[in-house]
Amino acid sequence: MGEVGVRSCCYQAKRAQSQGMAEATPQTEQPELHRAIGPKLLLFFVVGDILGTGIYALTGNVAGKIGGALWLPFLLAFVVAFLTAFSYLELVGKYPKAAGAALYTNRAFKIHFLTFMVAFAVMCSGITSASSAALAFGRTYLRQLLVEFFDVALAPESLVITGIAIVFIAALAVINFRGVSESVKANVVLTCIELSGLIIIILIGAYAIAVGDGEPSRLTEIHTPSGSSVLLAVTSATALAFFAMVGFEDSVNMAEECRDPVRIFPRAMLIGMAIAALIYVLVAITSSLLIPSEELAKAGSSALLKVVTVGAPGFPLWIFALIGLLAVINSALINMLMASRLLYGMANEQIIPKFFGVVHPFRRTPWISIVFTTGVAVILVSTADIGKLGGTTSLLLLVVFTIVNVACLVLRREKVEHKHFRAPTWAPVLGAILCAYLAMPKLSGRPWDDYKIAGWLLLAGLVLWGINRVLHGKHEIHPENLAK
Q: Where does the sequence pass through the membrane (predicted)?
């Protein structure tokens, strides 16, 4: 999910504070959002959307799946995301509303249940993404700061560290409950902090090459587990690395706040994705040059800390740990905010039980939705590791992206009066095929745990849908209201 694409999420929070969702009265027409985002700020937001927990927490896990050719899955993940971006660009040009995948699914297929499941899958991806960030917070970056400042060394999977991750989730819930006001400047600062950490890694790699350190031969090594193939190793690593490329799709939720979105979106999104991908590939190359893949895999979510230690032993490690800590905090907060507001939106649309839309009388925030999403996150943090949660996030979104690519083709028959970006037909076709392939069991090499976690989450959505249908019957869905 998006790391810094927060304008839409924060708008949801502000609207939740200003009006209750519990009332069943018809909504009055709202004024348009302020169109304050130009091309440069949009480009910055797209880059910030993508950067975050994925690269800071999963580099070691990806290395464990492929070996020294760590850069390859990140590059391939970019290609798949890039193709899907063409579909999003065509659709946001045709329908410049802050609703994203749910809106496109509803317009293309007009199947209420499918629209609901897409929206619920997006919500679940926010929870799994935030949960992976919580584990990175406790097991990696806060743990390192405890070592640096207090000389306290705790095992990554100790009960204390897991407890810290759970407390972190609870703290996010408190912030979420109190209400989150929008601050573009704060998000720009957080994006700069995230970016600075990755630039540090890249500069370390450049220095290592300049002084003759590192082992270039590792960059072509692909490790294949017994009974596996090179293709399976590459696709398995790409399926996980895809988690690092998600977030670009959330920028469509800013369409109503952009000046001339039809004109500025294509260039900003495509260039922003290319910049993020270049940063990721350079970070991966640096990691492989300096450290054997076996050691990166063993380091897990601490892989980048190890890169700093080996490549620049004089660099204060606490600085990078603090940067990583802020990166995952930003990621987790935005994803939990998005998840609770999307659940709140579904309750407002009367497609899940209405009590999820209950708003606290004083804080004016959807407290039951916050409690529910926090509870799910606590369960995930207590029972899964970072690799599984990252893999589940990418699985959920790969399924959503497959549907969006198909929807793009279906909606070609629906014409609009204004001019808009049109993707080359091969892009959504190839995007749908590749997204579906990376989501397939066996073909992608994805572990079954990803499907189990995703299955349980979607089953919860199915139960909520069923309960609501029994109690209230069928209701028409207006996806554009889910994002507000």
A: 41-58, 70-92, 113-138, 158-177, 189-210, 230-248, 269-291, 317-344, 365-384, 390-411, 423-441, 453-471
CA 263 to chain centre: 25
Contacts 24+ apart (CB under 8 A), 378-383: 378/166, 378/169, 378/170, 380/127, 380/128, 380/131, 380/453, 381/131, 381/134, 381/135, 381/162, 381/165, 381/166, 381/169, 382/162, 382/166
What token pair was written down for 335? 């994803």
Answer whether 85's CB lies under 8 Å from 248's CB: yes
Q: How far apart are the first and last CA of the chain?
A: 17
Cα–Cα distances in Å, from 30 out to 37, 167, 176, 420? 20, 37, 23, 25
With tokens 């490549």, the residue in question is: 311
- Locus of tokens 């199947």: 111
Contact present, 195 and 397 (Cβ < 8 Å): no
> How crowded is the C-beta side of 67, counted as CA atoms within 13 Å?
14
Q: Where are the alpha helices (DSSP H) in 67-111?
A: 71-94, 101-109
Cite the DSSP H helix spans in 255-385.
Answer: 261-290, 293-299, 303-311, 317-348, 367-383
Asked if residue 333 lies in contact with residue 345, where contact means CB atoms within 8 angstroms, the answer is no
Produce one character per residue of 38-47: b if its CB has 16 or more CB atoms within 10 Å, e if not. Answer: ebebbbbbbb
Q: Band the pLDDT of 318: cuts 50, 70, 90.
A: very high
Higher pLDDT among residues 29 and 48, named by residue: 48
Residue among 265, 276, 297 at smallest CA distance from 199? 276
Copy the structure tokens of residue 203: 């500069």
Distance between CA atoms of 200 and 315, rounded to whole angstroms?
Answer: 10
Structure token digits, residue 101: 């995948």
| Residue 86 near residue 428 (C-beta atoms within 8 A) | yes
pLDDT tens profile 363-380: 677 889 889 999 999 999
Over range 175-203, report the average pLDDT.
75
pTM (2 d.p.): 0.85
Distance CA 12, CA 6 (A): 10
What's the helix, strand, coil split of the chain in %, to 5? 75, 0, 25
Query: How many CB atoms neighbour CB 210 within 10 A?
Result: 8
Q: Which two tokens stand for residue 177?
A: 């409950």
Q: How far apart are CA 373 and CA 129, in angstroms?
A: 12
Nearest to 87 by CA among 409, 439, 480: 409
